[in-house]
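User: I've been trying to design a sequence by hand for this structure and keep getting stuck. Would you show me what you'd pick, starting by listing the structure so we're on the same page?

Assistant: Good idea, let's start from the same input. This is the structure you sent:
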């Protein structure tokens, strides 16, 4: 009987220990595991959200960097435009270029011929002009080359050449008619 009593005590102790373990598992471990899984999901969603914000921040930096570059380019392009109050600067440049290459030049430039580029609020206008130039052919070519390299945005539309026979009908230089546009702001 005592053996049965010890056996019952052992079984009772084991049952109590198993019950406590099961209670711990059901009331502590399972809720803790569920809480950990839920926190893991929250962490993953925060990670995804932070990655999106990081990418947005990087794209914002990229846009800002590109905007800064564009503003620098705009400032650079402003140098190509001639402001209306600096039109004499263009004429002086054209005359000094002709003098550099020993050319005779007549400039047909009329500020009343300004044409707006488009109908928008753009302040940029196109000014067509003509140059009648007389000189040696190699000098004319150098003049054109220098004109294309100038700091002004000058677009040559057409060139016409003919032989200049001069007053005594002897071969002289070459006459050139250059039609071009420049941009005023």
């Amino acid at each position: 009987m005592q053996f049965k009593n010890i056996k019952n005590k052992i079984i009772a102790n084991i049952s109590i220990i198993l019950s406590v373990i099961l209670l711990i598992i059901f009331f502590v471990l399972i809720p803790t595991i569920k809480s950990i899984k839920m926190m893991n999901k929250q962490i993953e969603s925060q990670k995804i959200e932070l990655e999106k914000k990081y990418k947005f921040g990087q794209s914002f930096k990229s846009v800002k960097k590109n905007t800064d570059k564009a503003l620098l380019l705009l400032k650079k392009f402003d140098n190509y435009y001639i402001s209306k109050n600096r039109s004499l600067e263009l004429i002086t440049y054209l005359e000094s270029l002709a003098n550099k290459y020993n050319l005779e030049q007549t400039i047909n430039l009329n500020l009343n011929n300004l044409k707006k580029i488009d109908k928008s609020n753009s302040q940029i206008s196109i000014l067509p002009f003509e140059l009648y130039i007389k000189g040696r052919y190699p000098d004319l070519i150098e003049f054109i080359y220098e004109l294309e390299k100038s700091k002004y945005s000058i677009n040559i539309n057409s060139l016409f050449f003919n032989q200049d026979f001069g007053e005594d009908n002897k071969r002289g230089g070459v006459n050139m008619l250059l039609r071009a546009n420049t941009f005023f702001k």
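That's my pick for every position. To get oriented when you compare it with your attempt: Strands lie at 104-109, 115-116, 125-135, 154-163, 174-184. Residues 2-78 form the longest helix (77 residues).
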